[in-house]
Specification:
Alpha-Beta Plaits; FAD/NAD(P)-binding domain; Glutaredoxin; 7-stranded mixed β-sheet; 25 strands
């Protein structure tokens, strides 16, 4: 029997992000992956600004930005003629509060390579070719049974094994959802002859009478061909109507391109990876069963429209990682783990609705898809006792904005937040503070800091404001009521 503190099932973006977060907290985690290696395709290629902030904290944003690029402007084609540009994303300038504007296009396989490299740098690893076939739990832990006959014993387990999650099925947790589009779709990584299609645009081939702004909701076959940054590949997405089914063979992929575009089959010089799917939106009926948690596609399945699936999944991991670390490393009450489902299921439901509306052409990509406005104001971990009357000041439960740190040290708030700790900002106040464990809470006194106004602001390890108020008694009361009093243990 292998023993660990956290068993992570699945080495996709969700499982790897969680494993990285746990590793930097000193939590022993074992990642098992049924496949022999990392996922080979580009599928989840859009990394949104909020996820870039997560990757900044996890220490991989530099590699992600180096590997990625801005989405090219769309170009609509009909009959082999350019019809004009189509902008799918609102242009957004970086600000002090939001330095990443995104989205950034990075093939999913590359994102996973970067996360895997970071995990190994932190001393973690992945057991490839290892399949979980059954799971049982008791009051003290979880026992996972492996296809090879071995077992893994852990305090907690996280199912990050995708939309067809074997762990979710073993737990008996259902998925409630709907078919977003009954027509099957093909996604493939292809290479195209240099003189056949340029790499300056995201090429759109809508069916007759349709426009890309309608999403994939119109009738008829369509195709979109997007150049992937830093590599010679393009990502092909094609829909099949009239009862046709995608043929995933190289010949079938070439035929799909020739049938929907002005390119010939011979213009597709290589088919590197291909998969099919039917767009669906589904939400797990629960994100937790005892000591086992669902995260990523195991908990919510999105249409790819709007690029929300991978991003919502990474943020599941980011939310759960600090809570597992607090319980396993710092003696926080295990009830803290209840807030994972409370916070993440509601957010996943909102993003599922957005993805579905974008797919059907009734919603659009914009501020909501960047995910900077998502938060946890209704969470039991969020308490705001501040006296500000500003409508724009962030509140408890909101994402904590970036800003210049000020003072002689310089730097930025994101520099102060980076790491597995809480951060207490004491802005334009000399109020007395309670004892706070310096290993768990980093304190920064600041003369002023827009947009925070004045007072005390406790920032969670995942970059959300936990509590805002004016004085020491309020902070102490918050730490006690949320059972986070471990942060102020000591004298």
């Amino acid at each position: 029997m292998t023993t660990t503190e956290v068993l992570v099932v699945g080495a996709g973006p969700t499982g790897l992000s969680l494993a990285v977060d746990l590793a930097r907290r000193g939590v022993r985690a074992l990642v098992v992956e049924r496949s022999a290696g990392l996922f080979p395709g580009s599928r989840g290629k859009g990394v949104q600004p909020r996820t870039l902030e997560v990757f900044d904290d996890l220490g991989v944003v530099g590699a992600i930005l180096a590997a990625g690029g801005a989405p090219p402007v769309g170009m609509v084609w009909r009959g082999g003629e350019r019809q004009g540009e189509y902008r799918m994303f609102d242009e957004q300038e970086p600000t002090d509060a939001a330095p990443y504007t995104g989205p950034v296009l990075v093939p999913q396989w590359r994102t996973q390579e970067i996360l895997y490299a970071r995990l190994t740098e932190l001393g973690g690893s992945v057991a490839f070719g290892t399949e979980v076939t059954g799971i049982a739990q008791d009051a003290d832990g979880v026992t996972a049974h492996l296809a090879g006959g071995g077992t893994v014993r852990a305090a907690y387990a996280v199912a990050a094994d995708g939309g067809r999650s074997a762990v979710r099925r073993a737990l008996g947790i259902g998925m409630t959802g709907e078919t977003v589009d009954p027509q099957p779709m093909l996604v493939a990584d292809i290479r195209i002859a240099d003189d056949a299609l340029d790499r300056d645009n995201w090429h759109m081939f809508p069916p007759a009478g349709a426009h890309p702004s309608e999403g994939a909701a119109g009738s008829g076959d369509f195709a979109a061909i997007c150049p992937l940054p830093g590599i010679p590949d393009f990502q092909l997405v094609a829909r099949f109507t009239g009862g046709a089914e995608p043929d995933l063979s190289p010949g079938g992929v070439r035929e799909a391109v020739a049938a929907r575009t002005h390119l010939t089959a011979a213009d597709v010089t290589e088919v590197r990876w291909a998969s099919d799917f039917r767009p669906r939106a589904a939400l797990a009926d629960a994100f937790r069963a005892g000591r086992v948690f669902l995260a990523g596609d195991a908990a919510h399945v999105h249409s790819p429209a709007g690029g929300q699936g991978l991003n919502t999944s990474v943020q599941d991991a980011y939310n759960l990682g600090w809570k597992l670390g607090a319980v396993l490393r710092h003696g926080a009450d295990a009830g803290l783990l209840d807030t994972y489902e409370e916070e993440r299921r509601a957010n996943a439901a909102r993003m599922l609705d957005l993805s579905t509306r974008i797919h059907r052409g009734t919603g659009r990509r914009g501020a909501a898809t960047r995910q900077l406005g998502l938060g946890y104001r209704e969470s039991s971990l969020s308490l705001d006792t501040s006296t500000t009357t500003s409508d724009t000041a962030p509140r408890a439960g909101d994402r904590a904005p970036d800003a210049p740190l000020g003072g002689t040290r310089g730097g930025r708030l994101f520099d102060a937040f980076r790491g597995p700790h809480f951060t207490l900002l004491a802005v334009a106040t000399d109020t007395e503070l309670p004892y706070l464990n310096p290993d768990l809470v980093h304190v920064h006194r600041m003369a002023e800091c827009a947009p925070y106004g004045t007072g005390l602001h406790l920032i969670r390890p995942d970059g959300y404001i936990a509590w805002s108020g004016q004085d020491e008694p309020g902070l102490r009361k918050y730490l006690t009521s949320t059972k986070l009093e471990v942060l102020s243990s000591g004298t």
